[in-house]
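Hi W.,

Here's what went into the run:
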Amino acid sequence: MLKLIQLNLKMLFRQRQSLFWSLAFPIMFTLIFGFFFGGEETSVGTISVINKSETKLANRIETTLTDSDVFKIRETENIEEAEGLIETNDIVSVIYIPEDFGALSPESPKEIDVYLDPGNLTSNQVITAFLGNMLTGANFKVQNVEPIFSINEVSSTSNELTYFEFVLVGLIGLALMNSSVQGIAITMSKYREDQILKRLVTTPIKPWRFVFAEVLSRLVVNIIQITVILAIGVYGFGANITGSLWLTVVFALISAFLFQLLGFVVASFSKNADAAQGMSMTITIPMMFLAGVFFPIDQLPEWLLSVVEWLPLAPLLRMLRAVMLEAKSPFLDPINMIIVITWIVVAAAISIYRFKLTDE
Amino acid sequence: MAKKVLEIKNLTKKYGKFIAVDQINFSVDQGEVFGLLGENGAGKTTTLEMIEGLRKPTSGEIQVLGLSINKDLSEIKEKIGVQLQSSAYYSHLKLYEILELFGSFYEKHVDIDELLRSVDLFEKKNSYVGKLSGGQQQRFSIIASLINDPDLVFLDEPTTGLDPVARRNLWEIIVKIKKQGKSIILTTHYMEEAEKLCDRIAIMDNGKILKNGPVNELIREVAYPYRVDFVSKKVTTEVREKLTSCCGEILNPAGKDNYFELNIKTKANLNKAINIIQKIHPDNLSIGEANLEDLFIELTGKDIREDKGGKNA
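Here's what came out:
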């Protein structure tokens, strides 16, 4: 069987095109998301601050905004120039602090003008919340009032998760799903079409050994996929993996194993390699967009969520994120494990019952 | 008495109401080449695949090398070599890697280089199967079935689709295998091939074996063992009457001008016919004995021509 595994690996690495896509596709996604959302930078956009006031409050607001990591600052001379920059999408907002703002005289202006780009909803929310908080604090101070009620932010994890880290786990799941479901389904269907499976049955090799060697050699490729994606995420874009790397790999391989079983299920029903490809895509594409690769599934409409959370990729990604990013036990939420085990048992049962090496 | 390497008794395969193989019986002796002949769909491949353990018989018994297919299939697989009809091999493995892989499935296997040399493929050992010509692919397919040094080799239509030179090449290989003392079961719809290679044959049609025995003996059983054909412009009514009275109907199956054909039952009648024809000084005269194709047509009423090709059970 070792020879079979060794030669299976040779074949997998010689299929340059499919190897390229099984690695290049997730790498491409990781790079795209890394460039957009990765790194230390947490900026929500570039703003311009025009401060015409010399008061302490005005200067403090200006300094806080310019020193913050939340915004990038672009210098502008006047409000007209800044408004022009919003129109050309060079900045997302202008904060105009009028002359004498912050002075306590009755004539002095009491409002800061915030010019917003209506197209940047997230930035707008952050900017108005940021300024609102600062001005509320200033109001309390002026009125000499201590706030009674406040928010105590408690994070469920030891570190703040970034969107890139969220997506990075999703991309690992996506890569494993695509390469495993499609890889097994298409290869097995092609082997059947070419009568390679039939030819193997005429030899003394036990069918389970053949299947085991196929699964094992593909898991080796999966380990390479996981390593490459993680390396790009961590070293290229500063993703913070706080959980156990070993547990991450173990759960990634459990995911790959489940998807390989689904590949065998597809191969059991497909008449040829073309049909297998179509059937695999029917299974993987909905999961790719709905099962939590790019955004949390909680954002889905309730009726859709009630379906999606039972698909194999959704609980697998939840467990992977818990293990990898939150350093939590994957067993904390047993329902995920139960769904995954159920899928494994069902897919294995269908494969054993339906997947035949010969016509009979 | 030669040792039997294969014994088939009342073997039947049904698919619903369709009977693919119908109560067939035959045996193969050690060291002989046994041919299963029949047109496409006659049941040859289904029969072979039941013997190889690829299909389950509906009923009947199969003994391979003294072992029962039902109880000792693993042991049988160690001792047989199988070349499937139109089977491909891993397209991303080189020839020697495929042989290495298949060799690893067996307890014993022969030297790979030697095997490749035996069919002039040693120079191609680092090539992929897809880069070989049709003839080379079939040669490779045959040696892949010999990797475990089998006692019994199954070759399912090994020459179908090959050009005449490649086909003759493959015949030489089959003869070589026979000379090594191995028994061979060959399916074919090429009569010439069966006549040249097989010691004994079974003619199949509609899942049944119509005739079974040594090739020469079967040919001798043909109703018209001799055939004369000639070309002449001098075939008068008198000559026609003489020929018809001694040898039966004069045929012209191809409809060619001045062409005549006679199928003759006895040697005495053959001599009479030759005497009559020689007197009119024919432009062309050929005398032949019946062959396997004549027997096949006589038995099945069907004519298998080489251009029929095609592959199936």
